[in-house]
Design a protein that fits this description.
11 helices, Rossmann fold, 35% helix, alpha/beta, 14-stranded mixed beta sheet, globular
Length: 383
Amino acid sequence: MRNVRKRPQGHRPNTALSRLPGKTALAGAALSALLVPPSRLWALGRRVKAKLHAMGLCRTCRPKALSVGVGGMAAESRGRVLLTSWLLGWAKARGVAAAVAASPSDGRPPVVPYQLTPGDACDVTGIEAALIAGYAPDARLILDTDPIRAAKTAERAFAPEMLVHQDALADPRLKKDIELAILTADDLDSGWDRVFPAGHWRRDASALAKADAFCVFAGPLAQHAALEAAGERLASFDKPVFGLSFDIWRWHGPEKAVAGEELAGAPYVAVLAESDRELLPEMLRRQIGVAPRIIFFVHDRHRFTRQDFENLRVDAARFKARNILTAPRLALKLAQHGGILDGYAIWTYDPEVVFGPSLTDGTPFLTWWEAAFEQAARKRKTP
């Protein structure tokens, strides 16, 4: 497959060469320095806007349902779908009527607000909404570019007891009862407090004060270092910090679901996103028992073309691999191959959310969450 980064099995980068400074690195550093002043202006503007909302001078909404905000500091933050899906599963198990209000993000619904229905294409709903619907088939979800309108529409349509606001961390337009902030290893390292356009954050670190708890999303190789960094970066907020990751429960393909070891008997290639680079390759080897013949890495928002599908077919044939393994968000895109990949089985996994205990006192996330939910519900009832 062309226009993607390939890593054959056994390839190891030359780390000695990667440390040598070059003109590209120096130019990048200079550009980054130039972008700091506009990023500070952007962050200031966001703080002023949040203050205006808090003063009641701008349009705000306090939903009637107990409201939970889930999100990260960057638009590309990972872990949001897993956490939202877990909350929906918890609500179903506890008999709490729940709904989700979200932005269509990369989706193109015909109208807004738009109520997600079974069978909607991911081009319509957006990848995140499609994944939530896949993980929680009973999910009731409203998409709208206006979060206030999305929340009001969800309440009219579903009358939920709990309303989850997807990707709405510290959004001043919505008054929430509980805010769950997701931070990645990059957020806690080189990406810390680097606001657009100098970085990927949409607000500066002061917005994290709105969070009631932090979930650090990282793979097994980076989890320890990320949690150590979180302990230092987030100590001043005095809020619980939990590890957040996932394990692979099972794999499902065109006709059935199987355990990972059942795929070990045939060679396979993998198509993964750049954000999966530190997480999934090791999980594939551990789950299946053998490494892929080759891994193709694409950008998280990559839109596959007909040429991409044709190149993937050629490369899979070259490695004599009839199985193509990928992450759920890319499986939705690969499914749109239009027959080009007929004869090749596309497999993706069902994730199982895994929480680590609180860094401060070892409290399990479930224990903390249920106490926080009950406390928020009592406050709602107090006149």
